[in-house]
Amino acid sequence: QVQLVESGGGLVQAGGSLRLSCAAAGRVLDIDEMGWYRQTPGKQRELVGNKIGDDTPHYADSVKGRFTISRDFAKPFLYLQMNNLKPEDTADYYCNLKQWNSGAPQDYWGRGTQVTVSS
């Protein structure tokens, strides 16, 4: 089992920055895929970016050049540095960890942290 707890959300003006953290506990492996998703009311949860092990992160086009994912394997923590925030970045942000068992994915989710960007 894996537990994920997000923190760092809040209210920020457009152009500002926030850093989200995801604390992971339990059976977390360095090779696991970890990522950030976001969701707004009435819409599907969408991928913001993810990182498999120590590989180069991948990002959604909408956040490339503004958001950076990093991972601390020692703690283990996952971070999302968000710069030049826009009102359209307003959403609930969720941490995800994906493990593969016998070819089948097992997803773990945190409860989310809210980010509000004012114009």
Coarse structural class: mainly beta
Number of helices: 0
Computed over alpha carbons, the radius of gyration is 14 Å
User: If you average the pLDDT, what whole number results?
Assistant: 95
Written as H for each helix and E for each strand, in order along the chain, the element string is EEEEEEEEEEE
Largest sheet: 7 strands, mixed
Which term fits the overall shape? globular
Helical content class: under 10%
Q: Roughly what fraction of the amino acids lie in strands?
A: over 45%
E-strand count: 11
Which residue ranges are poorly predicted, with pLDDT under 50 across at least 5 consecutive positions?
none
Distance between the termini: 40 Å
Describe this structure in words.
Helices cover 0% and strands 59% of the residues. With 119 residues, the chain is mainly beta. The strands form two sheets. Strands 2, 4, 5, 6, 9, 10 and 11 form a seven-stranded mixed beta sheet that branches. A hairpin with a 5-residue loop joins β5 and β6 (58-59). The radius of gyration is 14 Å and the shape is globular. The mean pLDDT is 95.
Sum this structure up briefly:
The protein is mostly beta strands.
Q: Any descriptors?
A:
119 residues, 7-stranded mixed β-sheet, globular, 4-stranded antiparallel β-sheet, mainly beta, 11 strands
List the helices and strands and how they pair.
Blueprint: E1 2-7, E2 10-13, E3 18-26, E4 33-39, E5 46-52, E6 58-59, E7 67-72, E8 77-82, E9 91-101, E10 104-109, E11 113-118
Parallel strand pairs: 2-11
Antiparallel strand pairs: 1-3, 3-8, 4-5, 4-9, 5-6, 7-8, 9-10, 9-11
